[in-house]
Amino acid sequence: MTLLERGRNAPSTWRGDLPVTSRYTYGLAGERFFRAIKEEGRILGTRCPCCEHIYVPATSFCERCLGELDEWLDVGIVGEVYTFTLLYEDPDGSPRESPETIALVRLGDGGLVHRLGEVEPDAVTIGMSVQAVFKPASQREGSILDILYFRPIGR
To answer: Cα–Cα distance between 107 and 90 in angstroms, integer?
Structure first.
């Protein structure tokens, strides 16, 4: 039976809710990465001893040489704006009252995509130094949103 012939006997529609559920898990490296953010207010990376590449967010295997990564580093909470964009609409398509600045903040050889705060959009520059601002420890839940935003430093 060919693929086209099989299609003739397949149901053409599905009525009602699709019974699919999923659960995202961080994996071993992600678990340690987010636990450090939650419990210690630190950002960790992993370093490949062969390639000398520092991965942020941390990962378990090097994408270059496929080596296992077990050297963990505190990369600090200060990075630099590698690139950024301004959001003028909310996810639902409604216009924002003021634009939100989202940046790729370089930490190690990688980085985090996150909000910038305490800075006007027209003052943001590529290469500017920024520092993570964390939620109070009692409010952290173990997610990237435990970092409220990155704010400029050294101005």
So the answer is: 27
| Distances, alpha carbon 153 to alpha carbons 80, 101, 132, in Å | 10, 16, 10
Give bridge partners of residue 132 from the DSSP assignment.
150
Is 96 inside a domain boundary?
Answer: yes
pLDDT band at 155 (very low <50, low <70, confident <90, very high): low
CA atoms within 13 A on the CB side of 144: 11
pLDDT at site 140: 97
C-alpha to C-alpha distances, 129 to 46, 51, 111, 119, nearest whole angstrom: 22, 26, 13, 12
d(CA 129, CA 82): 10
How many domains are there within the chain?
Answer: 1
The C-alpha atoms of residue 152 and residue 127 are separated, in whole angstroms, by: 11
Domain that holds residue 135: 27-152
What's the rounded Cα separation, in Å, for the pair 59 and 32? Answer: 10
In a domain, 81, yes or no: yes
